[in-house]
Amino acid sequence: MRFGAASDRPVDLTDASPGRILPVSYITEEFQEKMATATEQLDRTFAALADPTRRAILARLAAGEASVTELAAPFDMSQPAVSKHLKVLERAGLIARSRDRQRRPARLQAEPLREVADWTEQYRRFWEESYDRLEEYLEELQDRGKEKGNESKR
Questions:
Q1: What is the pTM of this model?
Q2: Whole-number Å distance between alpha carbons of 32 and 36
Q3: If I label 41, which of 66, 115, 120, 144 is the partner at 20 to 30 A Cα–Cα?
């Protein structure tokens, strides 16, 4: 139970009866919580991707699952150091680890990368539109230059 903003009467947020309208503050809170969660996930993903070693590990895992020993092989670092990188990737949801007897192979979980791609898509459209406007402007300048060139020949 929560208290409504307009009064001190409790509001039953579990009541799902037909025609039931939730207070606007509840809808706003729920939306804000979802947005905060999405933002936190993007933050964790970008933080994990900020390190070149972790990006290299993800590139390796794109080819298939691998153990810590296999992942550590191309790097000049200890297995515990690679394990720390794996923990960061795991917290970001970019990898999952399972248990196979003594091995704990890691595998790529690509969903957070899709969320990053979706987020960056809006900026791609912005830059494409900006480049289109620039191209139109440059064409306009070239046309003006051609017109002035033709006028001087007269």
A1: 0.62
A2: 6
A3: 66
